[in-house]
Design a protein that fits this description.
CATH architecture of the largest domain: Alpha Horseshoe
Pfam families: Ank_2
Shape: elongated
Protein name: Ankyrin repeat protein
Number of helices: 8
Low-confidence stretches: none
CATH superfamily of the largest domain: Ankyrin repeat-containing domain
Mean pLDDT: 90
Keywords: ANK repeat, Repeat
Helix content: 40-55%
Radius of gyration: 14 Å
CATH class of the largest domain: Mainly Alpha
Number of strands: 0
ANK repeats: 38-64, 96-118
Length: 118
């Protein structure tokens, strides 16, 4: 861990290193949902970098995706949304009677809506 609370998992994801990321997760050498000093998890970094394969890998190993799913639906990123839904297509992540599909339709993000309905 560095002075910004970045773990080796954060660094592996940031550099796009799938083999190292997979090794760390498989051996349980890092907690998948640990945030750094800025509050970013490995999954949020993978999403920022548009690393869809790493997103799927992190989701497979239990990365928390609820807030990120809402965010990426809201900014109309269908590829990221699809990767976040890789393991579980559950879209009824209620937020005051709204779910990601409601957000997508409300903001005319039809490509995201299509992904959510696949």
């Amino acid at each position: 861990v560095d002075c910004f609370q970045n773990s080796i998992l954060h660094f592996a994801v940031q550099s796009g290193n799938s083999p190292v990321t997979k090794f760390l997760l498989r051996k349980k050498l890092c907690e998948v949902n640990t945030p750094n000093f800025e509050g970013k998890t490995a999954l949020s970094i993978a999403c920022e970098e548009h690393e869809t394969q790493l997103i799927k890998l992190l989701v497979r190993y239990g990365a928390s995706r609820t807030e990120l799913l809402r965010y990426y639906v809201g900014i109309n990123e269908p590829k990221i949304v699809k990767a976040l839904l890789f393991k579980n297509k559950e879209i009824n992540l209620n937020d005051k009677q709204q779910n990601p599909l409601h957000y997508a339709v409300t903001f005319n993000h039809y490509k995201v809506a299509k992904v959510l309905l696949e």
